[in-house]
Specification:
By secondary structure, the protein is of the alpha/beta class. The protein contains 16 helices and twelve strands. It folds into two domains: about 230 residues, Alpha-Beta Barrel (TIM Barrel), CATH 3.20.20.70; about 100 residues, no CATH class. The strands form two sheets. The protein has a nine-stranded parallel beta sheet. A three-stranded antiparallel beta sheet has the order 8-12-11, with no helix packed on it. Helix 2 runs parallel beside helix 3, helix 12 crosses helix 15 and helix 13 packs antiparallel against helix 14.
C-alpha cells in the first residue's frame, strides 16, 4: 500500500508522512526515539516534562540535528517549575506541536497558536475534549481506558466515536493501538490518526534498559496491565509488579512517607523552589483534601518511572503501559514498525474490499 493513501489532513497539519503519533512518555521519549519516529514518517513528541531544565534546549536542537529539521512536538505540564521555559523554547525553535493535559489557560494557548504551533492535548472524556477546544486546542487526542499511564474509564471504542461526533477539530485516537489494523479502524471511526505509546516504547529505538523491556515482553495476559490509584492518587494503568504489590500492602503512613520522599527528590531534580512548592500546596488546599493528597503524591510517578525507564530497575519502580503490551512479542525499529503498519493496513483494506469477504 502506498503511504500516500493513508495520508490525512492531520499529516498536513503536523508536517509528517503518516498519521501515526509517538506519545511523550516520561523518561522514554528522548531525542533518539523522537528522531527515529520522525525519520520513519511518523510524528514524535519530546517528553519535556521529565527532561532536566538545563538539558531541554540541547535535546530540542538534537532532534533537529538527527532529523534534518523535520517537524516534531514537545510535551509539557503547567505545574512543572520550568513550564515557562518550555513555552518560550517551543516558540523560539518553531516546534510544530505541543501536547499537554489540563492546565494551560486561554492566554498561553493563544500565544502558542499565534506562533503557528498546533495545540494538541490528551483527554479521556468528552467533557474534557470540549473544554480543551473552548480553551483553544486545535487537535484533540482521545485516550481510551486501554491506554497506558494516566487514563480514564471509557473504552476507546466508546470514547472515540463520541468525541468525533461532537467536535469539529481533528481527532487522534489513542489507547489500544499498535498495528495497521488499528490505524485502519481508527480512520473508519472518523479519527485522523492514531497515537501510540507502549508500541513505541517496545521498539529497538526507545533506549529503555533491557531489564525493563524484558518485563514488557513477558506480559502475555492483558489482565497484568491494570489500573491503580496508589502511585499518585489518579488512575494510572501499569504492569503489575513487585513495587505495585508493595504499595497495595503498605499502610497509609508508609505510602505517605514514600510520597514525601519522592516529592523531595523530584523537587531537587527539577530545581523547584520552596516558594513554588508552597504555591502548589496552597492551591491544592483550596480545592480540598483529595487535591492535597494528589499534590503530595504527584512526584511519585516521575520518580518511580525513572527507576524503571532510566535506571533499569523494574522491580523497584513502576512501568506505565497500555494493555496492548500483551499483544507485542518483538522489538522492531521505528522504521520497521511504521512500514509494517502501512503494509498491514493495505492488506486489511484489500480484504475488506474483496468480493470473497473480509478475510485476507
Amino acid at each position: 500500500m502506498s503511504r500516500a493513501l493513508l495520508r490525512t489532513p492531520l499529516c498536513d497539519l503536523l508536517g509528517c508522512e503518516l498519521p501515526v503519533v509517538q506519545t511523550a512518555m516520561g523518561w522514554v521519549a528522548g531525542p533518539g526515539l523522537v528522531a527515529a519516529t520522525c525519520n520513519a514518517g511518523g510524528f514524535g513528541f519530546l517528553a519535556g516534562a521529565t527532561i532536566p531544565a538545563a538539558r531541554i534546549e540541547a535535546d530540542i536542537l538534537r532532534v533537529k540535528e538527527l532529523t534534518g529539521g523535520k517537524p516534531f512536538g514537545l510535551n509539557f505540564h503547567m505545574f512543572q517549575p520550568n513550564a515557562q521555559q518550555l513555552l518560550d523554547l517551543a516558540v523560539q525553535h518553531g516546534v510544530r506541536a505541543v501536547s499537554y493535559g489540563r492546565g494551560p489557560d486561554k492566554k498561553v494557548i493563544a500565544r502558542l497558536r499565534d506562533a503557528g504551533i498546533v495545540c494538541m492535548p490528551t483527554v479521556g472524556a468528552l467533557k474534557h475534549a470540549q473544554k480543551a477546544i473552548d480553551m483553544g486546542a486545535n487537535v484533540i487526542t482521545v485516550q481510551g481506558a486501554e491506554g497506558g499511564g494516566h487514563t480514564g474509564s471509557v473504552p476507546t471504542t466508546v470514547l472515540l466515536p463520541q468525541v468525533v461526533d461532537a467536535v469539529r477539530v481533528p481527532v487522534v485516537a489513542a489507547g489500544g493501538f499498535y498495528d495497521g489494523r488499528g490505524l485502519l479502524a481508527a480512520l473508519a471511526f472518523g479519527a485522523q490518526g492514531i497515537a501510540m505509546g507502549t508500541r513505541f516504547l517496545m521498539t529497538s529505538d526507545s533506549g529503555v534498559p533491557a531489564a525493563t523491556v524484558q518485563r514488557y515482553l513477558s506480559v502475555r495476559d492483558a489482565d497484568r496491565v491494570r489500573v491503580s490509584y496508589l502511585v499518585d492518587g489518579m488512575p494510572q494503568r501499569m504492569i503489575d509488579n513487585e513495587y505495585l504489590a508493595m504499595l497495595e500492602n503498605a499502610s497509609a503512613f508508609k505510602r505517605l512517607r514514600i510520597a514525601l520522599g519522592s516529592a523531595w527528590r523530584w523537587k531537587a531534580q527539577t530545581g523547584m523552589t520552596g516558594r513554588h512548592a508552597l504555591r502548589l500546596l496552597l492551591q491544592a488546599m483550596r480545592e480540598g483534601p483529595s487535591a492535597v493528597a494528589q499534590t503530595v503524591m504527584a512526584a511519585n510517578a516521575p520518580v518511580l518511572l525513572e527507576r524503571s525507564m532510566v535506571q533499569g530497575m523494574p522491580a523497584l519502580g513502576v512501568m506505565s503501559s497500555g494493555q496492548v503490551a500483551a499483544l507485542i512479542d518483538e522489538l522492531l525499529s521505528c522504521r520497521e514498525l511504521l512500514d509494517g503498519i502501512v503494509a498491514q493496513a493495505g492488506e486489511r483494506l484489500t480484504a475488506l474490499c474483496s468480493p470473497s469477504g473480509v478475510r485476507a
